[in-house]
């Protein structure tokens, strides 16, 4: 039973630390050249949260998927472009250790679950 809500997320606040700049659910594609003859495409597909089980009073089974029911990916475009900058030979100013660490947080996947303290109450 699919009772989904569409989600689009952009995290933009320095207080979020490593999460700052992450986007998910925006239907975005970024092509990253990996060789002279090819490239890798980083895709941030649309995202939906299926809340059917929550509506039925069950905590387990809440899920976050793409419209094709695959794992949702996130992308940090700032980290992506930081990686491009870091790979420029003899660039000035040289990337700092913080810049290099940021570039490693370019993309990943997202899962969701209800918090352990969450309780469903019915009327």
TrEMBL record:
This is Uncharacterized protein.
């Amino acid at each position: 039973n699919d009772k989904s809500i569409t989600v689009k997320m952009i995290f933009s606040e320095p207080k979020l630390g490593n999460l700052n700049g992450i986007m998910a659910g925006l239907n975005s594609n970024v092509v990253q050249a990996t060789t002279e003859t090819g490239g890798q495409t980083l895709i941030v597909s649309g995202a939906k949260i299926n809340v059917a089980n929550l509506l039925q009073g069950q905590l387990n089974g809440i899920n976050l998927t793409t419209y094709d029911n695959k794992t949702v990916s996130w992308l940090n475009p700032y980290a992506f472009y930081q990686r491009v900058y870091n790979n420029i030979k003899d660039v000035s100013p040289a990337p700092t250790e913080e810049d290099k660490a940021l570039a490693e947080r370019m993309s990943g996947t997202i899962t969701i679950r209800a918090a352990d303290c969450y309780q469903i109450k019915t009327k």
